[in-house]
Amino acid sequence: MAVWVPIAWVIGMGALASGRGRWPLVAAAGTALAAALDVSRALAHPAWTAEYGALVLVLATFALIMSPAYFLGAAVHHPWPAARERWYYAWLGVFAAALLALAAPWPLVDLWVAVEATTLSSVLLVALPPGAGPFEASWKYVTLAMLGGLLALGGILLMQSGAAADVAVGALLMLVGFGIKAGLVPFHTWLPDAHAEAPAPVSGLLSGAELGGILIVAWRGLTLAQGLLHQHWPLLALLALGLLSLLVGVALISRQHNLKRLLAYSSVEHMGVIAVGLAFGGPALLGAFLHVFTHGLAKSQAFYLSGSVQAHYGTVDTRHIHGLGRRLPWTAGGLMVAIGALAGLPPLGPFWSEWLVIQGGLADKGMAVWAALTALLLAGGFVALMYRLPRLWQGSRPPVPPEGAGPPESKFLSLPVLLMSSLTMSAGVVVPWVFLGLGRGV
Predict the structure, then answer these.
(1) What is the chain's mean pLDDT, rounded?
(2) 3-state secondary structure string across the chain
(3) How far apart are CA 86 and CA 101, in angstroms?
(4) Residue of 377, 225, 402, 252 lying closest to 319 (CA atoms)
(5) What pLDDT does residue 436 have?
(6) Considering the entire predicted model, what is its pTM?
(7) Has residue 433 got a pLDDT over 50?
(8) C-alpha 282 chain-centroid distance
(9) How confident is the model at residue 181 (pLDDT cuts 50, 70, 90)?
(10) Residue 39: is its pLDDT beyond 60?
């Protein structure tokens, strides 16, 4: 399964692109990827976690479905060179396959390789759009991400010695290294720029799947360090970064006019929620894993649809997006569902996972104060995002067609929007049932 799913992905993207001469490039990338995964399987005998793998496949499928619409709009406002569009489909397949590897129960060194694969492929995707902005964003991303990768690798190698001092230093290096890659504050500075400049389908995968997957890898390493040291401070340090991420993310959401940057700071907030839940442990640990899925569905939907908004208006500046509900009804409806979920509106999925994180913290007397603070910060995030909903839908000016407006909303787009919205809404019932009703532990 670990090999055949990525191969099927590459073949599917090759079939999509074959009519425009992209098959040789995609096939070459697929061959190299399959060979690398075969070697990994022979060395590590991985078995990837079904739930996270399913999330990646769902989000990657929708990213592929939404990509042609993204390029249709880009052709009106910011046309891509043909060669870059070819590379986009190839690297999207590699990125999706690398994300699948994050779920495998491999040793930490092998997981570090998977994290680096996601970083390198996503950096290239961020850099692909024409213009200086994407190149600058990708340069900042790769500089900080490579630094984080080196720190995380150093931490993993130090932990292997088993000496208490080495394990303690290694835990700190892992926390900083993986914290950079997951966008935790104060290491988050690359994330808003990368999200703002990346193609919308890439932003959806980056925020909806990669960030949460890397946090889970960090938690595995810190839990191991905590067991070796017989001390609680590694996860307490993760708790501190989680609370700081919540505070900064919520504070900056309300100041954003760029829709994609707003969603990026929302990702900072939600990575804080996941980090806090992982640090609390107990029922909150289950809530953190649940939040990886509920947030992933809602955030990827919001980013995918931001691409439709950009295709029509030529901008994601909310001050120039007026009458969205009248001009793009399917896109507007799906975006409202996604933003409502990200705000924690009950009974949508993120509400339940956040509730479980808070309840798990309150159940531990030593964490009750921090759980109450988490609830207060999430309430602030709810207000900040819900304040945006009616203004984004209706707008403060008459719906005058923008200059150079993109194509009208296609009927084909209504089906994926409906499917994504159904998944986001049903996550409030289905995902908790999968984790709780079936008794799946973490």
Answers:
(1) 80
(2) CCCHHHHHHHHHHHHHHHHHCCHHHHHHHHHHHHHHHHHHHHHHCCCCCHHHHHHHHHHHHHHHHHHHHHHHHHHHHCCCCHHHHHHHHHHHHHHHHHHHHCCCCCCHHHHHHHHHHHHHHHHHHHHCCCCHHHHHHHHHHHHHHHHHHHHHHHHHHHHCCCCHHHHHHHHHHHHHHHHHHHCCCCCCCHHHHHHHHCCHHHHHHHHHHHHHHHHHHHHHHHHHHHHHHCCCHHHHHHHHHHHHHHHHHHHHHCCCCEHHHHHHHHHHHHHHHHHHHHHHCCHHHHHHHHHHHHHHHHHHHHHHHHHHHHHHHCCCEHHHCCCHHHHCHHHHHHHHHHHHHHHCCCCCHHHHHHHHHHHHHHCCHHHHHHHHHHHHHHHHHHHHHHHHHHHHHHCCCCCCCCCCCCCCCCHHHHHHHHHHHHHHHHHHHHHHHHHHHCCCCC
(3) 24
(4) 402
(5) 57
(6) 0.85
(7) yes
(8) 24
(9) very high
(10) no
More confident site: 395 or 245: 245
Average pLDDT over residues 360-385: 92
Q: How far apart, in whole angstroms, are the C-alpha atoms of residue 232 and residue 226?
A: 6
CA–CA gap between residue 71 and residue 49 (Å, rounded)? 33
The share of the chain scoring above pLDDT 90, in percent, equals 35
Give the separation between CA 190 and CA 192, rounded to whole angstroms. Answer: 6
> In 3D, which of 121, 69, 138, 59 has the Cα closest to residue 407?
69
Residue type, 59: L
pLDDT at 133 over 60: yes
- Residue corresponding to tokens 């799947």: 209
317 forms beta bridges with 258
